[in-house]
Design brief:
By secondary structure, the chain is α/β, with parallel strands linked by helices. Helix content is 25%, strand content 26%. It has helices at residues 38-47, 90-93, 135-138, 141-154, 169-180, 195-203, 239-244, 269-274, 290-298, 317-326, and strands at residues 2-7, 11-16, 26-35, 52-53, 57-65, 77-80, 119-123, 127-129, 161-165, 185-190, 208-211, 227-232, 246-254, 278-281, 308-312, 333-337.
Length: 341
């Protein structure tokens, strides 16, 4: 079978590999779709020092199961959680599965393949059966879980004004979720030139999009003088500006990451203290809420396929990722499809 491997900068190869036998608690999944995540782009740009498999936003069909697998059967369509909790941990047994990310996964087990491959071996725990969605739409479930975790962390209330900083796929879905959760006005902040993302944000309910490279957030005339909730999917450097536009009692939830000096930010602690602001971290590991996300897509709350601006076969992954990285105007979400007919 074929599998893709990446090495920075933007080098991809597709080669023939032979998978090992399944363990008793493992599942062989035929990959039907795998969407490209921002993390994949980071690996392709500078994160992969040596060849490694990649891709974790996966939908597919169960090809084979180990002897002890009971939660799925051959022929089931499944989406794959990118990480799970350890059901035997103290945190899980205390009812906080969200605090444990040490469960079985297909990231850290020395996988020969991941999502950008014809097939992948995964632990039974990560398989979530579904029906009624295209494989492309189902591949959006994993990043939707990230957006939903962010929205839940921000605790959006009815009639809140909300600002979403960063309008990549996760930020765009956060805009849609905020509206569905009862926000009064939802604003986006994005760099100019991202026409497709800006247009989709407005289509999905954003009252306005602030071009953050042309206008300071602090200068924007919010109707209430600020916003009740800020959701950050951009680098941490945007957190101080986000805090500055929070109304009294506001909450800023963030998931944007950076490395090296970019991981450090400075803000006015007196502003946070006097205005009783809260800074909350969203980290969707373990990956939760997949059944809820499937329902959100099926019901049309999240029109997942509207995010997808590019599809490609496995054999073209190198040129597809390079093309996607260079397309700042029209690219929103790229998906590898096994069958594009």
């Amino acid at each position: 079978m074929k599998a893709a491997y990446v090495k920075a900068p933007y080098q991809c190869i597709v080669k023939e590999v032979e998978l090992r036998e399944l363990a008793r608690d493992e599942v062989l999944v035929k990959v039907k779709a795998c969407s490209v995540c921002g993390h994949d782009m980071i690996m392709a740009a500078y994160g992969a020092e040596d060849w490694q498999p990649f891709g974790h936003e996966v939908s597919g069909v169960v090809e084979k199961t180990g002897a002890d697998v009971r939660n799925v059967s051959v022929g089931d369509t499944v989406v794959l959680e990118s990480g799970t909790f350890d059901r035997f941990s103290a945190a899980s047994r205390n009812g906080r599965v969200d605090l444990d990310n040490k469960g079985p996964n297909f990231w850290l087990k020395g996988s020969d393949t991941m999502g950008f491959a014809e097939s992948v071996i995964v632990p039974r725990e990560v398989c979530v059966p579904y029906n009624g969605l295209s494989f492309a739409a189902a591949s959006i479930v994993e990043p939707l879980g990230v957006a939903l975790d962010l929205a839940k962390t921000a605790d959006i209330k009815l009639n809140n004004d909300v600002l979403v900083i960063g309008l990549g796929p996760i930020g765009l879905m956060a805009v849609k979720l905020a509206k569905a959760m009862g926000a009064r006005n939802v604003y986006g902040a994005e760099l100019s030139g991202s026409e497709a993302r800006i247009a989709l944000a407005k289509k999905w309910g954003a009252a306005d999009v602030i071009l953050s490279d042309k206008e300071k957030l602090e200068a924007y005339p919010f109707p209430r003088g600020g916003v009740d909730r800020v959701l950050v999917t951009a680098p941490p450097a945007t957190i101080p500006a986000g805090l500055s536009v929070c109304s009294i009692g506001g909450i800023l939830a963030f998931l944007g990451i950076d490395y090296g000096p970019g991981a450090f930010v400075t803000f006015d602690s007196n502003l946070v203290h006097v205005n009783k602001l809260q800074l909350r971290s969203s980290f969707a590991s373990p990956a939760l809420y997949f059944p809820e996300c499937l329902d959100l897509i099926k019901s049309g709350v999240i029109p997942a396929e509207e995010l997808i601006t590019q599809t490609f076969p496995l054999e073209e992954i190198g040129t597809a990722i390079q093309r996607f990285s260079e397309d700042k105007q029209t690219a929103v979400k790229a998906v590898m499809l096994a069958d594009r007919a």
